[in-house]
Specification:
With about 425 residues, the chain is mostly beta strands. It has 2 domains: about 130 residues, no CATH class; about 230 residues, no CATH class. Helices cover about 5% and strands about 45% of the residues. The protein is built from 2 helices and 32 strands. β19 and β20 form a beta hairpin. The protein is globular. The N terminus and C terminus are likely disordered. The structure holds calcium ion (CA) (2 copies). One calcium ion binds next to loops. The site of one calcium ion has 7 residues, from loops.
């Protein structure tokens, strides 16, 4: 079987597998609560938080009797609603907040939820205070559904020199962090190839389907990484994920030579892949990647790709190469991986019908040391310390439909993290 025929056969097979229903391929998502013991299972990172309030927010709340005279309150966004939490001290003499009340059943009553006790710790010469609490199980409302949710609460505050840990200071600088302790997992097959998926509440708000958005940092020349906001999906041919495998939750997915619309419906317990039927334009990729994400011009839509090869079809439009992951055998027994993410300087490019352009990225990589301009220091002034950052930049040279004001030269496609997968060897 020649390669061309093999690809055609694979494409037909994919089409047959997905044509089971007009609505596409439903992938069952199962809730997974993380074990309290490290069992080697990969757990994606996710977390959210809330600020503290000096007064209980307005509402019909029922409060417990607090031990101290200065409890603090927080309204936590979880799912469709907000939950009340309060922190207190075991005794008025406790150095830091070490009791947490959380309205786990969402009835506005903190007296029917057990007080959760933690052990406060202090670091950095007593200036950094932190209390970790046991995992909290609750339910979150999502539409008409009530869904399980688990998180690890942590209360912390760093007290600057010369300041005191007053309730007011805690309300201004303290942090209530919720570390996500659950995810949804699924498995599906396309063309006989099994795929594994994890849907992660990356931003820790109890929802697992927050679409991507980009913090639009308008500082060019600073090579600041562009961190996508929203939730995250892990997709691979095996379950051997690590933290670098996470991709922003996208509306489109290129997989097995096809483009799919992706919809995550956690209340229905499924992720649906529907073949994308709109017109597509051709895009050549300058390097083979394990994973790759393009982001729309306004930063609200992504196209994720898993092993896309060197030729893909995408909807026409303006994109930015948001991130990619590639690996290479060095011929000496080591497998290297590059994980790259866009910076504020990564340009947009345009894919137009019939243009058949190439997105060039990857090698050669160059190290770039950046010294930000200090506005507070007049020209010629001596400063005692200068912050510097080291980035390794790859190429995102664009030779397709260049946009105005973007020169196809060294452009920041990446703050790059290199790691040897096996066996270890220093990066040369
Ligand atoms: Ca309650
Ligand atoms: Ca979320």
């Amino acid at each position: 079987m020649n390669e061309g025929f093999g690809r055609l056969a694979a494409a037909v097979l994919v089409a047959l597998c997905v044509a089971r229903g007009a609505s596409g391929l439903d992938v069952t998502l199962e809730f997974e609560k993380y074990s309290s013991r490290e069992d080697g299972t990969f757990r994606p990172y996710g977390g959210g938080g809330a600020r503290f309030l000096l007064e209980c927010p307005e509402g019909d709340w029922k409060l417990p009797e607090f031990a101290s005279d200065s409890p603090l309150f927080a309204l936590i966004q979880l799912g469709d609603g907000k939950r009340l939490a309060a922190i207190d001290r075991k005794t008025p003499r406790s150095d830091f907040y070490d009791v947490l009340y959380f309205d786990a059943n969402g009835n506005g009553d903190l007296t029917d939820d057990s007080a959760i006790r933690g052990d406060g710790q202090a670091f950095s010469g007593g200036r950094y205070h932190m209390t970790e609490f046991p995992a909290l199980e609750t339910t979150v409302e999502a539409g008409a559904a009530s869904l399980p949710y688990v998180f690890l609460p942590r209360v912390s505050c760093f007290v600057q020199e010369g300041e005191k840990l007053t309730p007011k200071y805690m309300a201004e600088r303290g942090d209530l962090y919720l570390g996500v302790q659950c995810a949804y997992r699924g498995r599906f097959e396309l063309g006989g190839q099994p795929y594994f998926v994890i849907v992660n509440d990356r931003n820790g708000n109890g929802r697992f389907n927050d679409p991507v958005s980009l913090m639009q940092v308008r500082v060019t020349g600073s090579l600041q990484p562009l961190y996508p906001q929203g939730d995250e999906v892990y997709l691979g041919e095996s379950q051997a994920f690590d933290y670098y495998d996470g991709m922003p939750l996208s509306s489109l997915l290129v997989l097995g030579g096809r483009v799919y619309e992706v919809a995550v419906d956690v209340p229905a317990g499924k992720m649906t892949l529907t073949p994308y039927e709109q017109p597509l334009a051709s895009l050549r990729l300058g390097m083979e990647a394990e994973r790759l994400t393009l982001c729309s011009e306004d930063g609200t839509r992504c196209i994720n790709m898993l092993r896309p090869g060197k030729q893909v079809m995408v909807p026409a439009g303006k994109y930015r190469l948001l991130s990619y992951q590639a690996q290479r055998n060095d011929g000496q027994g080591d497998l290297w991986r590059v994980v790259a993410m866009a910076t504020t300087d990564t340009p947009m490019f345009e894919v137009a019908a019939g243009s058949n352009g190439t997105l060039k990225f990857g090698e050669p990589y160059v190290p770039v040391v950046s010294v930000p301009r200090r506005r507070t220091a007049p020209p010629g002034a001596r400063v005692s310390d200068v912050p510097m950052s080291l980035n390794v930049l790859g190429r995102a040279q664009l030779d397709m439909v260049p946009l105005r004001d973007i020169r196809p030269v060294w452009v920041g496609s990446a703050a790059v993290i290199e790691s040897a997968i096996s066996p270890g060897q220093a990066w040369q």
